[in-house]
Amino acid sequence: MSQVEDNLQSASASSTVVVPTSDNARQRRKIADLEEKLQVLESGQAVKKREINYIMSQGRAIRRMVTLFDGIEDLISENDRRCDNEDDDHDVTVDQDRLQFGYIVLNNVLPWFHQKASDMEHDDYTHMLKKLRQGADGARGDDTSKLKSLVPDWVNRELKPNPLVDPEDKFCRGFTNDACGRLLCPTELDWNDPTVKAGIRDRVDGYVVTEMSWPAFLYAGYTADQDNLEEGLFKSKLLVQAFKAIFTSPSSAKEVAGDGDGANIIENNRRAKKDFSGKKVKTHLRFALSSVTSWRSIDGDFDYIQFWYIIVDFFERPPGRVAQRNVDRLLAWWTRKVFGASQRAELSDTAKAKMSVNALTLQRARLDDAQFDSE
Fold it and tell me: What percent of the chain has pLDDT over 70?
């Protein structure tokens, strides 16, 4: 009888009986087990990394299409506040309305957010918000950096200043530069007047530039009718170029004279469809024209946050039906300018029948009918 058989027979007498196994066999099994655990661990880390990258990429939409300055937590807190005070919400402030509207837009842009945030544990929830913030702020940094390098070329081509705007030196922009100063100048002032120019540069009383003045770069032709300040507002060439550079591609910003190429933009740049009013672009373009070298909310006497709110309110809080109709027309102008105008719905049945695809279908059907009749 072998030693193994002896051990098996005596197993009932002792619970510590061991069947001898070679060291190599045991080590191979341990290594295989550790490799399997490592593979599971690495697989989990890879999945988690992909999820983090996805959340950060989704967060990039927040500063582009939801809100340029408000924190995600503030939007969530306002929605929670309204849920807690559902029957007592009569004294809502404008700021609270803005936050709530931002939360609604956030959930339109990120449809998965509300349910996911509700179901997560608190630690996972705060981690998700952190990654969304990183993505959001990263997108804002990328957009400002992109315009900072592109805008000088556009201004030089459009206004042909002498000297040209230096694309490398932002200190030489703003009101110290004649071309940038003209575009940043409040529409109620005449930049060509030496007194106005000197007063703005010296920040003299009566010439202080704040967010309460529409800058010239917002207007078609960079001039405004003081008797009809809404005419041409938000229709400048620079604005369209800035929007296309951010939401479609820098190359698409080179040509903005006609209507947009709808097929290319709609298929390849669907995110642009969600913010074709370009509210954030107006703020970024103002920053690109200024002499400020890094992103901040205050530039001298100009408050970018309040400027952003003023623009948002123009589109989202019109004072009446006529103003709302004008906003709708302006948005339709932007839609056509960026996406192009489709004539497909206007084609008649006669015109469709003459098109080669339909004509060939008809010809093939006739050949088949003719063959059937001959038989």
Answer: 83
Alpha carbon distance 168, 171 (integer Å):
9
Q: How many residues does the chain have?
A: 375
Question: How far is residue 168's CA from residue 366's CA, in Å, rounded to a whole number?
Answer: 68
Question: Tens of pLDDT along 281-324?
Answer: 778 788 788 887 777 788 889 999 999 999 989 998 999 999 99
Whole-angstrom Cα Rg for the chain: 32
237 CB neighbour count, 10 Å cutoff: 17
Average pLDDT, the chain: 83
DSSP secondary structure string for all residues of 1-40: --HHHHHHHTGGG-TT------HHHHHHHHHHHHHHHHHH
Q: Which of 145, 144, 58 is nearest to 106 (CA)?
A: 58
Asked if residues 143 and 64 have their Cβ atoms less than 8 Å apart, the reply is: yes
pLDDT above 50: residue 95: yes
* Secondary structure of 111-159 in HEC code, one letter for each residue: CCHHHHHHHCCHHHHHHHHHHHHHHHHHHHHHHHHHHHHHHHHHHHHHH
84 Cβ contact list (under 8 Å, min separation 6) = none
Q: Are the C-beta atoms of 117 and 76 separated by less than 8 Å?
A: yes
